[in-house]
Known about the structure:
binds (2Z)-2-iminopentanedioic acid, binds NADPH dihydro-nicotinamide-adenine-dinucleotide phosphate, five-stranded parallel β-sheet
Amino acid sequence: MSYVDEVIERVVEKNPSQPEFHQAVREVLNSLRPVVEANEEKFRKDALLDRIVNPERQIIFRVPWVDDKGQVQVNTGYRVQFNSAIGPYKGGLRLHPSVNLGIIKFLGFEQVFKNSLTGLPIGGGKGGSDFDPKGKSDREVMAFCQSFITELFKYIGADTDVPAGDIGTGAREIGYMYGQYKRLTGLYEGVLTGKGLSYGGSLARKEATGYGLLYITEEMLKCHGDSLKGKTVIVSGAGNVATYAIEKAFQLGGKPVTCSDSTGWVYDPDGIDLAALKEIKEVKRARLTEYKNYRPKAEYHEGRGVWSVKADVALPCATQNELNLDDAKMLVKNGVKVVAEGANMPTTQEATDYLQENGILFLPGKAANAGGVATSALEMSQNSERLSWTFEEVDAKLKGIMVNLYHNIDRAAEKYGLKDNFVAGANIAGFEKVVDAMNAQGIV
Ligand code: NDP
Ligand code: 2IT
């Protein structure tokens, strides 16, 4: 049996009930076959893939807090410090009831390669909790965040592990966590990114993931003799990534016509009303059902359905496995040319295969959404030098990183005779740098 198959088998056997982790490992290792098989004995002897799929450290802890009725609630907290070969662990904190160890491991594993692709010195990690911020008061969210950090502060630091936002963790949560970290340690340091601008945050971090997604999509289109101008864009999600993907899509001359949340979706043929979306989600923290109050002509539908709308470009920006094989078939039938993942692993493996087999230009999340973590690394740089760069400076750097990243994955795919297979290109290019650093540092 090949070394790749052996490792996949071991991962499945040793990590039962973690289907998302298996899925992420399978996807990466399958596309590494040409690299590994060219030097299989060395990879096996050094147990390189075994080391890559085993997190350096996994921390699981109790998070007790008191709700507004005086009832004690208990959640589980996680931080998976996956790989520090190229820098301190870096990656977001997800707060969502669906969080479990397998979800955090899939995200941490993806993060290792994504962070490598940014070209910046950041290793991979991820964390979070099964806490659901939805419907909680500010005080309850603060109580949870303080309790969460009261345990996690022992394991993080500006030069060791730097968490940030993800689903359910935005500026409010990062603020409460930062305050508690500072109180416990007495350190005013860049231990978290996505901070508010008044206490060490970076301009353009909020926008970075969505903007970066559109920068890389535009660069890919440019290299294929096309552009976003005049394109109809369908977007899922209505959170941080989706909102700023919609904003940049407009700025580049596209027309985003959909967005969605976990209860329903909006189709606005005139283009999404961005001001309304921001007010509903960022200010009121409300449901998309409210969108019709702002735009009576728009359609609101319960459930899912964004992928049924005819468009040129599809941007899944909500969560994992939200675009399945049936959706992929619908996209192809409707003439979609590009799918670029704003979320982490939003497309199932079967759907990815179908899209690629049908000539869709497919940009995987670990490349397409790397602008967020890249800008987090820029926030770390600003914190280290105790300076703040302008929005324009950060945005220009972000754009440069995404353009370089595109060419890097494009070259890697071409090198192995896989032109336009950006899944393979991203996995190979991300992997090569991490492996080089691991080899140089010996068996650690
Ligand atoms: P937010 O919490 O800001 O928004 C998430 C959005 O997705 C919401 O509209 C939410 O709807 C929807 N959603 C979440 N879970 C589900 C679900 N199980 N089913 C249906 N809809 C769901 O998160 P972000 O925008 O930050 O993150 C979105 C994706 O992008 C995630 O995959 C994240 O890992 C990834 N990502 C985020 C980065 C960042 O910088 N924030 C960077 C790179 C990737 P509702 O509010 O109803 O739950
Ligand atoms: O998935 C991701 O890359 C993020 N949630 C952002 C991580 C970060 O450290 O900014």
